[in-house]
Amino acid sequence: MSKNIITISREFGSGGRIIAKEVAKKLGYAFYDRALVDSQIRTDELSAESMRDIEDSLNEALLFQLAVDGNYAEHFWESAMMPSVDKLFLMQEKIINNMIAKGPSVIVGTGADFICREKADCASFFIYAPFDDRKKRVIEDYHIPAKDAEAKIRRRDKLRKEHYESCTFQKWGDVHNYDLALDSSFLGLSKTAELVIRAIE
Question: What is this structure's pTM?
């Protein structure tokens, strides 16, 4: 039986977002990424720019142990006592749960694999690739100057790692946190997307 929730985490430059969009298109699922989550956060009167600024400065685990079996208590949502990063992650959780309640979904990043980890209807994937292949992609597809590409990749991976680990207490990229980890360079982006679809059917 197909899964109705697909989460895709990825290394920067691995093509994970492109794969996720192709999977969503072929399955007819809704596609959600950071931009859409940011947009919803704006409607909740929290600046998406502030969210990025906080993530950029993360250097230690700030999330309180508010969870019991991974489920955050609703009454903590409005607590003024909570640090900003904690509240931001809880907002992400609430928004993502609202999104997936609307129907079959593919979600990129945003800690969705952790948020949905106990849902039987969810399959989680981690997309990675050799560093040289990622470097080539960010130069060609993202138009990042060759001299800046390596630093850009390492910085983006570092930020994703810090944000994920600060909010989930799990190791970013650890295969044990995902149902399947895929090297996007092995088959190419389109065939990797096809493999994701075959894996959930």
Answer: 0.77
Q: What's the CATH fold of domain 5-200?
A: Rossmann fold (3.40.50)
**Tens-place pLDDT, residues 92-106:** 788 888 889 999 999
Q: For residue 67, give the 3-state DSSP assignment.
A: strand
Domain ranges of the chain: 5-200
Written as one letter, the residue type at 145 is P
Pick the closest to residue 76 from 93, 60, 54 (CA basis): 93
Enter the DSSP assignment of 74.
G
Cα 15 to Cα 115, 116, 117, 141: the distances in Å are 22, 22, 23, 10
- Asked if 123 and 27 touch (Cβ cutoff 8 Å), the reply is no
Query: Which residues does residue 10 pair with via DSSP β-bridges, in sequence order?
Result: 127
Structural contact between residues 16 and 23, judged by C-beta atoms closer than 8 angstroms: no
